[in-house]
Amino acid sequence: MRIQRLLALILLCSLALPLPSSASQSLAAQTAGMILLQVEQNGEAWYVDPTSLNRYSLGRPDDALSVMRSVGLGISNADLALVPTAGSGSKGDASLKTRLSGRILLQVESHGEAWYVYPKTLERTYLGRPSDALAAMSALGLGISDANLATIPVAGILPTTSVPNVSSDATHVEKTVATSRGTFTIDLVTVPRAKYEMITDTAETDDCENGCATKTLADFVAENDATIGIHGTYFCPADYAGCAGQTGSFDLAVYNTAATAMLNEFDLPYQSGPMLVTTKDGTVAYFHRASELGTSVRDYESRTGEQLQAAIANYPSLVENGANVVGSEIVNASQSTKASRGGIGFDDENFYLVIAHSASVTDLASIFDEAVGADDAMNLDGGATSALYFDGSYEYGPSRTLPNAIVFRHR
Question: Residue 94 above 80 pLDDT?
Fold first, then answer.
């Protein structure tokens, strides 16, 4: 069901905002932190970021959650407890509530849960799932006319010279990039290969078919003394009805660096997606098909004389030898929809971790090829599984716990 239908009732009773009464305060400043509903159109929703005073399109529920997380502010559990939840009747801390009015808060000490502090009540509303984000828009949105909305600037392309979040010599930046397939907002982590070692980890150390262990990305990072991490392969989450009897399981081959064991090794000869591999001496290899690694880790190591450090397979391949190859890969219907998408790529100098907001897998290939400039790149899981961790906190997500992950530890 389209979002405008779900918002129909509230739109009928929404009142368009008046133009600012004085030049001293713009309409953007008056609506800072508010969710605005475009009542003269189809109920399109916008969020006015209270720090930049720019408006972000919330689009569909999945897009809304992505935008809200992308402009979120990390907060400790102790401070979050001082901001009352909606309807709780608690007073909270008046000074802190006022300071956080209109902000999206991310629980960095937990699992990155997102909350919205409604400016009119200074209470927080949970934004955990797309349906929660939609409920917040429906309940808290304020109607605005097209003329008034036009006076609030749209969030534009973030300059690439923005000061990035820096961990040693790795960097994180959120920016908007232009490609032949359109303009996309991405989270990009650049990891120097000479300074960091790549580790692939799994919550289970043996093959598992059902009730398989999962962990938060933060746990994977901490347990490997790492500082950077991204979610891994497609898997069967517990919240998918079709995954009954196989929850937490995944079919792709993933090497557990610490246990020196390849999960799903038996399936290597039959896997039709690519595989990214690193060795103890720092070599990075990208196989067009995971089957090219060989029939086993022992086979690979005896044949090459190299010791495996990390390896992970997924699908489809995005970029190979500097060329976009996704057009020759199988891209299914769910991968063709707009959602958050994760991927990993590399060149001679760096690894690149990308979370693309509201993109298809084909869009992600263009991002790695045209905007990032990776020599090789592979798609990872996406949607509610998407998670990116950098320098002590989540830069994106998480919504789910994971059966496997890719992390980076300083050498």
Answer: yes
